[in-house]
Amino acid sequence: MNIPFLKNPTAKFLVFIFLFYISWYFIYNWWIHPLETIDLAVIDFTVSISKWILELLNYKVFVGSDRLFGIDGTGGLWVGDSCNAMALFALFTGFIVAYKGNWKVKVIYILSGIICIELLNVLRLVALAIMETYSYTWTEFNHAYTFTIIIYGFIFWLWILWVNKFSKKGIK
C-alpha cells in the first residue's frame, strides 16, 4: 500500500508511535492488567526497593496490605497500577523502536532505559514518602505535577540521546 503521507519521515514516526501505543493500550487493558500478576510484581519490586532506600536513610517504614507503604507516623502511599511505570516503559520502547538503529543496540538501550525509568520511579516514591511526613499537600502537588514533568522529561531526554548518540540518522 502506497500512502504519500507516510513518505514524510515525521509522519511515519508519529503514525508508528500512535499504532504502537494503541497496541500497548489494548494488550495491557485486555490481557496484562486483568491478570494483575505483572502489575503486582512490578509494584512489589518498586515498593521493596523504595522501602530499602528509605531504611538506608534511617526512616522507619511500614508496608501494609493492598500496596500501601510509607514512613511510620504518616498515612502512607497507595501505589496504584498507573504508578508502576509500565505505560512509561511502553512509551519509551515505542520511541526507540520507531527510530532507526541497530537492533542489538536498541534492545540494550531499551533495557537500560527501562531500568533507569524504574530507578527514577523508585526515587519518586521515596521522595513522596518523605514529603508525606511534612505535608499531604506537597505530596499531592508533586505527585500530580512535578514528578510527571520530571519523568516525561527524562523519557524525552533518553529518546533525544538515542537519536543523537546511538541511532543511525533517519526514521525506520
Helices and strands in order:
Blueprint: H1 9-35, H2 37-56, E1 61-63, E2 68-71, E3 77-78, H3 86-98, H4 103-132, H5 136-166
Antiparallel strand pairs: 1-2, 2-3
Helix pairs in contact: 1-3, 2-4, 3-4, 3-5, 4-5
Outline:
The protein is mainly alpha-helical and 172 residues long. It contains five helices and three strands; from the N terminus they run H-H-E-E-E-H-H-H.
Largest sheet: 3 strands, antiparallel
Order of helices and strands: HHEEEHHH
Count of DSSP-assigned helices: 5
What is the terminal separation in angstroms? 17 Å
DSSP strand content: 5-15%
Query: What is the number of independent domains?
Result: 1
Question: Which structural class do you get from the secondary structure elements?
Answer: mainly alpha
Structure write-up:
The chain has a three-stranded antiparallel beta sheet with strand order 1-2-3. The protein has five helices and three strands. 70% of the residues lie in helices and 5% in strands. It is mainly α. Helix 1 runs antiparallel to helix 3 (86-98) and helix 3 (86-98) runs antiparallel to helix 4. It has one domain. The protein has helices at 9-35, 37-56, 86-98, 103-132, 136-166, and strands at residues 61-63, 68-71, 77-78.
